[in-house]
Fold each of these.
Amino acid sequence: MHPDVAALLAVQDEDVAIHQLEQRLSELKPRLDALAKARADALASLKKVEGAAEAEERRRQEIAARVAQHRAHQAKNEATLSAVTTMKEATAATAQLEQTKRMIDEGERELATVGQHLVELNRQVDERRRIVEETELAQASAQESLGADQKEIEAQLGTVRASRQNRARAVPGSLLSRYERIRSRKRVHAVFPLRGVSCGNCDTMIPLQRRSGMLGTGATEICEGCGVMLYAAD
Ligand SMILES: [Zn+2]
């Protein structure tokens, strides 16, 4: 193998390592995003049930106020009844009393139903509050550990990039820029060995004349099938 090609392969090894580290780095963000979304969802769900519990509590207070009013009427009606002098007045006062009593009973029944709803809603509020706390804890600890991962990967990237720079100096400029042009087309590997008579990447057959040139001089060729750089391995 021509020493230039060997030097280029060393650069490619570093580039592949850089690519893998960058991949790992880019995978961290979606994980953090997913945790942030879980927390936002839990919060929204809590707010919703809190709103329902508040509305139900307002309803309970309205009904209780109404029942209190009916009770006040009731007291007045009882006083009226005790002061009646005629049968007609007694009948009217009794009818009033009965009507108020019905309204009080109805209000009490509503209060009981609303009270049950409130117990259930408050239970849901507690449960969802707990879920919010759990997602917050999970998010915080993941942020910490993913943050540590990120620092470590970035440190490794720094080292590998520096080493790549050094190795690139051993590769002739024209060869390096051809390699970089191929890699810029979203390729991780740009240099492949010949495999028998074919391209080591796509299996396209390479004409004998070009192969002999590669074997003779150690020159590289571009594969017409897939566009990668080919070299003759020893
Ligand atoms: Zn090919």
Amino acid sequence: MKQMYCWRCKCTVPMLDEEEFAHLDRVYQDCAKAVIQYRKDHRVSLTQTPVADLFQAAHRCYEQLTGTTGVATEELLKHRIALYGRPCPQCAKPLRTPKARQCFECDAKVSAAIKPTDATEEQNKGRIAVWLDPEDVRFLAAHCSCSPNAKRGEEQRCGRIRFRASAALHKSGWENADVQQ
Ligand SMILES: [Zn+2]
Ligand SMILES: [Zn+2]
């Protein structure tokens, strides 16, 4: 459980992690089934069904998990950390989805999440690490050293080195490198 801003409720609310969510979801789905069963048994419409009563178990479960009451039934399953993105770098409110590229609260543009390099994975591919100054990486990223009659393999290697150099710039925050592929 984590206190996070919910853009629907317009305030900070407790958000559930995946384990807590799975628990609430089971209780919630049972309540939803109880609503369907009630309508069948009594042959009534949804407005004639005591939905709030039938969802009490879900609200109790949410209260046990978070210590909070008074959340609308339709919000219960939406207070789930995994549905939101990381905090906006400008206003710190969570982005509305994990894939959001712009903050709805302050309009800040957000760059794609950067996946850090996994050293073990790289070693397993037989690669070795090289440490260079950013300016040298920038040079590598932009510099094609292929002669006009370079072999295809050489051109591919040169392209690969420029691509990886530009990825390294991006990952280390040097994003404005202009790379010609
Ligand atoms: Zn909410
Ligand atoms: Zn923002």
